[in-house]
Design a protein that fits this description.
Layout lengths: L7 H26 L3 H10 L1 H10 L3 H22 L4 H22 L8 H5 L7 H20 L1 H9 L1 H6 L4 H42 L3 H26 L3 H22 L1
Helix pairs in contact: 1-7, 1-10, 1-11, 2-4, 2-5, 2-10, 3-4, 3-5, 4-5, 4-10, 7-10, 8-10, 10-11, 10-12, 11-12
């Protein structure tokens, strides 16, 4: 793979992969700790509506998807706090409507013939410098917000009742976590796509959870593990001419199975 790094597209792919891996490790830990994996999946699929809007209006894909995903996250936060008994129904509704909006708007866009599969399953080799700048900016925002409010987010993630009694605005931080999850999904679009992003947000975190004793260490370990999976997946996809996003996820899944087997043997 060393000779491949002489190409700019491979350099961009490697940088993008590591960026996504780090942010996935951080946000994936929060998603798992808050037990909102299904919510994150709903946001990921609903974000397809943002892709459709961006293509139809001609605005940058990342910008349109970011705005739409954040709106979907806020709606889901409101619904899950107000309609707890109907959470599954509303998440499924937002999920389906978001994807339907995206598909219809793409159909209505005259002359558009780009392969939309790249947004569903990732196209890391197509990442350019502008994409990297946007991904880096979103990563910086997520890192700053979590660092600034780490204690409050930690309290809300593990004991929301205690956090509320301590005067912490649980609704605000719950919504904030969902918004940051939405931005993480947007960052991951070019690497693993909307369909496979949940695997990247959960598999490394499961392994890290078994190796860590705190939320902070789980974030760090899962970020390193996800980066390792991404580098190996990129190397395999380049060597055997495979789809990069799917290869990264398969490497993660096989590693998880091996980790579970080794844990059983011990």
């Amino acid at each position: 793979m060393l000779e491949a790094l002489s190409y700019e597209f491979m350099q961009n792919a490697l940088i993008a992969g590591i960026l996504v891996s780090l942010v996935s490790g951080i946000m994936g830990s929060l998603i798992v700790a808050n037990r909102i994996v299904f919510l994150a999946g709903g946001i990921a699929h609903a974000a397809y509506g943002g892709i459709g809007i961006a293509i139809f209006t001609g605005i940058p894909i990342f910008l349109g998807t970011s705005v739409f995903a954040v709106i979907a996250a806020i709606i889901m936060a409101f619904v899950t706090m107000k309609q707890k008994e109907n959470i599954d129904t509303f998440i499924g509704l937002i999920w389906a409507v978001g994807m339907a909006i995206g598909i219809i708007l793409v159909d209505l866009t005259p002359g558009y013939n780009v392969d939309l599969m790249s947004y569903l399953f990732g196209s890391i080799l197509a990442v350019n410098r502008e994409d990297l700048y946007f991904m880096g900016a979103l990563f910086g925002i997520i890192l700053f917000v979590i660092s600034f409010w780490y204690r409050n987010i930690l309290a809300v993630s593990y004991d929301s009742e205690y956090a509320s009694l301590s005067g912490i605005n649980v609704r605000f931080f719950y919504t904030l976590i969902l918004i940051l999850s939405a931005l993480t999904v947007v960052i991951a679009i070019k690497v693993v796509g909307l369909i496979l992003v949940i695997a990247l947000l959960t598999i490394p975190i499961y392994i890290a959870q078994k190796l860590s004793s705190s939320l902070y260490s789980m974030m760090m370990i899962s970020g390193v593990i996800a980066s390792l999976f991404t580098v190996i997946g990129l190397w395999l996809s380049y060597s055997f001419n495979l789809t990069s996003g799917a290869t990264i996820i398969l490497v993660s899944a096989v590693s998880l199975i091996l980790f579970m087997l080794l844990s059983k043997l011990k």
